[in-house]
Amino acid sequence: MKNILVTGGAGFIGSHLCERLLKEGNNVICMDNYFTGRKENIVHLLSNPYFELVRHDVTFPYYIEVDEIYNLACPASPIHYQFDPISTVKTSVIGAINMLGLAKRVQAKILQASTSEVYGDPVVHPQKEGYWGNVNPVGERSCYDEGKRCAETLFMDYHRQNGVDIKIVRIFNTYGPRMRPDDGRVVSNFIMQALKGEDITIYGEGTQTRSFQYIDDLVEGMIRMMATEDFTGPVNIGNPVEFTMLELAEKVIQLTGTKSKIVHKPLPADDPKQRQPDITLAKEKLNGWEPKVALEEGLKRTVGYFENMK
Q: Per the residue annotation, which of 62, 144, 158, 214 is the catalytic one?
């Protein structure tokens, strides 16, 4: 039994990760300050004697004896990370420093949940890990994009200078149950609008593409990454199958049976036109990992979750 700390553990991704780690027989400490995480996501785990919930902000030091750390703490949707951009940068940068310091002291493995946003609005397609990105350092999204890029820098420097056993995963668009209905992300937006019978809002012409990964596939990739030896990453974890925003909206309309119509609004600043991972490295280094859940199946499960919330 390993002692595993998950920062941001009450969030969408973190709660699924905590659940999986408990199923594998680990002792799990879930840390969250509930800025975007919710107790509802982990309340079903509280009766498990090997699960511990800690209310704590990752920007302050935390002292504990653990074997592994999954650093997920950071608001990940534009609505939330732009609400307090300075706090977002501090969470990514100071949070990384605090967790890396902890990993160094107790000699724990530590995984950084980075993001495809480090590639910005890419001019290389699909995106490989060696691509340095096309990021606006002074835009409205920069607090998140540059915060995550700086966190990757810190992880690599702690590894090179102090020998910390690090892992970096770059997470591409992920969806599934326990997403917040108000997070402003495209899957939850479309589903909530459809279930309410409201117009489905597409920004721009709807020709911009994204690759959508179901939460179970992401968790599997993260756990496999943590188990690797002599490999730091970064490694892309995402679904390489691309869909346009129009195609996604049409699938949601079909699955919900809504009478919602599609309406178009202007594109937000710095919104990437394409986003698709090259997962060659993940397949090679993570024991053949690749996404298993098709978009339609994943959307059915997610629609069911939001229907039950009503």
A: 144
